[in-house]
Specification:
about 700 residues, 5 domains, 5-stranded antiparallel beta sheet, 14 helices, about 25% strand
Length: about 700
């Protein structure tokens, strides 16, 4: 009866395993590309971890420590191969299928597995079984007398790990970290021999009222030295120097301006609004080339702008531009409803053609979304236009399927709560005060035939996970298509605000009729240094006029133009390539030292409370980022990322925390000083306490990874 039960159990498991295999194969066939990316991610990380374990393995072998098993990938074991005196023994799925008991009732390891094969042949038996796990990630090495989850096991075998000298055991433990460092150097050496395009240490822009802005940095400036480092700088060096700086620490920086002059500066990093790490306020530089989007996103961009991925902007309104910041400056100062662009496109045949294109512009409300006072708002001689919804990121009401009960792009905001014609700062204040409460928004909506109607939409402002602000899921710009003033504001250092009622429409500028703010701006610009009259009207009965002294330099007009459609420009890239093998080794070594030092400083700042643990990335975040790199970037970027991971793993594994390698080395030092090892009970308690701490940290960072990846 027992034999029949064993027979049934064995073949039931075999059928179940076969069914799982079939389902996996079905998924692979249906998602070949995605599966290939996932497999590449797992194999890459597996290789990094395997290198670490190989370090333990090779030094243990050289130290005459008995290695019981060395596994590529993680259990359950798919394949086990070991040389026996009678030949090479092969076990398939030994961890999944039950042992066959021998006469004494004990399991016989040699009989494990769904299939057991012995290839006959004479030879010396090997003590090590070489395995391949089912989970294609990492690997492990099993030494006699050494366990990760408990104390070192005592043994009479002289080849036991426990019976070796503290020096040998320390060498075995440190070998994994050393191999990770060596592999990182080799990986970066290969990367720089091939060449990789990285974002250079160039200022793409500066955040208003940031350390960079106060220091006088400008778009186009190149950072040639930061925090004492000047070799092979890329943009990441700037962000890391800021994030890892001490509180109130002055970071030395040398920059080269676009005119060729150089300047030495000292910047103190600050926590920027909405940020989680201290920064200088230096924006990443982008190019003039349109980046790639998903198939749906690319089709939408083409329908709205005529742009394709790879298009490069050459000129604006006939003016040639050499950089994105030059393009941005021309666009910001244009104050037009649309601009003419010339775009260079490389066709399928490799021929280059120059195309003409027109793209719409919007007027922005401020230089930063973090407006703290109305004086920071953009205006036209104190006149602030109404707000118009540019984008809607979420369905905000329960009636999302009904267009009249949800906000739409193009809607003009007439009122929020009890405030009519709100400015952006008023909208933010009301939104923050209405968290998790229903908030009425009155809008003006234009239909396809041009008729306008007034609607009221109910929204509930929320504070999304990972956000420091309460949001209603919209992006706004200024309504330049109507000459309606939301409000006139007091400006810092400018003329006194014009006495124009909230919601009044400008009807004429010095006698010239106007129908939108573009015409208002155009007419005002005609009268530099003169005194003019601006006429306004609220309704049929209320109207009036105000006098305006127009300045000569145009400082009274602070509004800026921006593209009405979001265009995904590629980051600016520069090729980092070694001049030869020796140079590649030096560059690989420097890059490895940089990442090791940065990881160490990050941990030190974390313990000191200068870096929030929310900024840490765990397994889910790393794998998610890895998949994106593999799916969206050339393979060389994933290889570079693996070099970074290898350097980081080396630091983490050598932390003085059992059961990590560094913690076990600390226990060996204690043993050396004490003259004897700690008791197995004490070692076990320390090991389990360490595992509890590590698992707690993993759970914490994994939770943050999930929030960042799926809910932010």
């Amino acid at each position: 009866m027992s034999e029949k039960k064993d027979f049934f159990n064995k073949y039931f498991r075999l059928i179940l395993f076969a069914a799982v295999v079939v389902m996996i194969l079905y998924f692979i066939v249906r998602n070949v590309s995605a599966f290939g990316n996932v497999l590449l991610v797992l194999l890459g990380f597996g290789a990094v971890i395997l290198v670490h374990e190989f370090g333990h393995f090779i030094v243990a072998k050289l130290s005459d420590i008995k290695v019981e098993a060395f596994s590529i990938f993680m259990p359950p074991t798919l394949l086990g191969v070991q040389r026996k005196e009678e030949g090479i023994r092969i076990r398939i799925l030994p961890d999944i299928f039950p042992k066959k008991g021998n006469d004494s009732g004990e399991g016989d390891e040699s009989n494990e597995g769904a299939l057991r094969i012995t290839i006959k042949g004479e030879g010396k038996a090997s003590e090590t079984e070489y395995r391949m796990g089912l989970i294609p990630f990492g690997g492990f090495v099993k030494l006699l007398g050494q366990e990760d989850t408990s104390a070192v096991k005592s043994s009479d075998d002289p080849r036991s790990f426990a019976n070796k000298t503290t020096g040998i055991r320390a060498a075995v433990l440190a070998a994994g970290v050393v191999c990770n460092i060596i592999s990182a150097v080799i990986i970066f050496m290969i990367v720089f021999l091939i060449g990789i395009n990285l974002t250079p240490a160039v200022v793409g822009g500066v955040t208003p009222d940031s350390p960079a802005a106060r220091a006088g940095l400008r778009a186009g400036d190149e950072v040639i030295s930061v925090a004492g480092k000047s070799d092979d700088l890329d943009f990441s060096n700037i962000g890391i120097a800021a994030a890892l700086s001490g509180e109130d620490e002055k970071i030395p920086m040398r920059v080269r301006h676009e005119d060729g002059t150089e300047e030495d500066l000292e910047l103190v990093a600050e926590l920027q609004p909405g940020g989680q790490m201290r920064a200088f306020g230096i924006e990443i530089p982008v190019s003039l080339t349109v980046g790639r989007l998903s198939e749906e996103g690319a089709a939408d961009l083409f329908s709205k702008t005529g742009f394709l991925a790879g298009d490069k902007i050459k000129s604006v309104e006939g003016r040639e531009v050499q950089s994105f910041w030059e393009l941005r400056e021309v666009i910001q100062d244009s104050l037009l409803p649309e601009v003419a662009l010339s775009v260079e496109r490389v066709g399928d045949s490799g021929e280059t053609e120059v195309l003409a294109s027109k793209i719409g512009l919007d007027l922005t409300f401020a230089s930063s979304h973090n407006v703290e006072s109305e004086s920071e708002l953009y205006h036209i001689y104190s006149m602030v236009p109404r707000l118009r919804i540019g984008i809607v990121s979420d369905k905000l009401t329960s009636g999302a399927d009904d267009s009249e009960s949800s906000l739409q792009s193009g809607d003009i905001i007439l009122a929020i709560g009890d405030v009519e014609n709100p400015t952006y700062s008023e909208m933010r204040s009301i939104t923050e005060a209405s968290k998790d409460k229903e908030l009425p928004i009155q809008i003006l909506r234009s239909s396809a035939d041009g008729t306008e109607k007034t609607l009221t939409v109910m929204v509930t402002p929320k504070k999304p996970a990972g956000s420091e602000r309460v949001l209603i899921g919209i992006g706004v710009v200024l309504d330049a298509e109507h000459p309606v003033v939301a409000k006139t504001i007091d400006t810092e250092g400018g003329q006194a605000r014009l006495d124009i009622p909230r919601g009044a429409a400008i009807t004429a500028v010095d006698g010239a009729p106007v129908s939108n703010f573009y015409e208002i701006i155009k007419e005002i610009r005609r009268y530099g240094g003169e005194r003019i009259t601006i006429n306004w009207r609220v309704d049929e009965e209320i109207a009036g006029s105000v006098a305006l002294n127009v300045d000569n330099n145009g400082e009274g007009i602070t509004v800026k133009s921006t593209f009405s459609e979001i265009i995904p420009f590629d980051d600016l890239k520069r090729t980092y390539k070694a001049g030869g093998p020796i140079d590649a080794i030096v560059m690989g070594y420097r890059r490895t030292v940089m990442f090791v030092a940065q990881t160490y400083v990050t941990l030190r700042r974390l313990i000191g409370g200068l870096v929030s643990p929310k900024n840490l990335m765990g397994p889910v975040g790393i794998i998610t980022l890895s998949y994106r790199i593999v799916a969206e970037q050339p393979l060389i970027y994933y290889v570079y990322f693996l070099g970074l991971i290898s350097a980081v793993i080396a630091v983490f594994n050598f932390l003085p925390l059992p059961p990590l390698d560094g913690g076990l080395v600390v226990l060996l030092l204690v043993e050396k000083i004490k003259g004897s090892a700690l008791s197995e009970r004490v070692q076990g308690i320390i090991a389990y306490a360490g595992w509890a701490l590590i698992l707690t940290l993993i759970l914490y960072v994994t939770f943050n990874d999930i929030v960042r990846s799926f809910f932010s």
